[in-house]
Automatic annotation (TrEMBL):
This is Methyltransferase-like protein. CDD domains: AdoMet_MTases. Transmembrane segments: none annotated. One of its GO terms (molecular function) is protein methyltransferase activity. It comes from Ooceraea biroi.
Length: 284
């Protein structure tokens, strides 16, 4: 079958080490937002002075996430790779800490878990989910353990299959406890897209107010049918939203917020915000 490779491997921003079995571990370097710099360093006398005896404050301190992932996969296993949407969503989380601090955060289709690991620095609890194919759940667990020093919240790793919405009572209660839902680059197949939007519909049909952030990259192709360049998966996603949404507010987030991770923030990246109208649902 045809294999696909994430565009981040064409960028020269990071170093990787190949592992036995075809995976790699890549160093994802990011700049600390000011609130992540431990103020206790000052109290502990760890701040230094320069040659003029002025306080030497490192304004560009960097952190590192070591993420295991596949380099190239078939289409049904693209969750084993890292895509730009995950980095865009991670940047948004770091840029808007007030939206995510002390929240219960659910990530759908989390792939290797990078965005969930970033969210864990602010959240009360992170629920990291994906379908358990190709060893994705075990891969997420390894990445959480490798980056344990960066994780500040409680976390759970569960399987959620967009094509099977029959959840156990315990799993549904856990998923419905989230007030913030994240998803990055889950729009790549029409059947999966339909299942993803149906999953959102189930999660958002509740009296609890929820906000969803979806990051994706429009992928354009030339079609003979349209005699034009289109982004068919993105357009199919919009059609699914119109088909399944109930009392949703959908808008686009400007992506000019600060960039903390090193990647090419191309113009085709999109960040959407969806909110349910809990009041309308309450009286339905």
């Amino acid at each position: 079958m045809h294999k696909v490779t994430s565009e981040i491997h064409a960028e020269d921003h990071r170093t990787s080490e190949k592992l036995y079995g075809g995976n790699a571990v890549t160093k994802f370097v990011f700049k600390y937002p000011s609130y992540m710099i431990d103020s206790s360093e000052s109290a502990a006398g760890k701040l230094s002075c320069d040659s003029d005896d002025d306080l030497d404050v490192d304004r560009d301190r960097e952190g590192v996430l070591m993420i295991e992932h596949s380099v190239s996969t078939e289409l049904d296993l693209v969750g084993l790779q890292v895509w730009r949407g995950a980095l865009l969503l991670a940047d948004y989380i770091l840029s808007h800490s007030e939206l995510f601090r002390n929240q219960t955060i659910l990530e759908l289709g989390s792939g290797v878990g990078l965005t969930s690991i970033v969210a864990s620095h602010l959240a009360k609890e992170v629920i990291c989910t994906d379908i358990n194919v190709g060893g994705i759940i075990d891969l997420i667990r390894r990445n959480f353990l490798t980056n344990l020093a960066c994780i500040k919240s409680a976390y759970r790793i569960d399987e959620v299959n967009f094509l099977n919405l029959t959840w156990s009572r315990r799993l549904e209660e856990r998923l419905q406890s989230a007030s913030v839902i994240l998803a990055a680059d889950v729009i790549y197949d029409d059947k999966i897209t339909d299942g993803f939007v149906r999953t959102l519909s189930k999660l958002l049909y509740t009296k609890k107010e929820k906000t969803v952030y979806i990051a994706l990259e429009k992928r354009y192709v030339f079609t003979v049918t349209d005699l034009d360049t289109t982004a068919p998966m993105y357009e199919d996603f919009l059609r699914c939203i119109e088909k399944y949404r109930m009392n949703w507010s959908v808008d686009y987030v400007n992506i000019d917020f600060p960039r903390y991770f090193k990647y090419d923030r191309v113009k085709h990246l999109v960040l959407m915000r969806i909110q349910n109208n809990a009041r309308s649902i309450a009286y339905a």
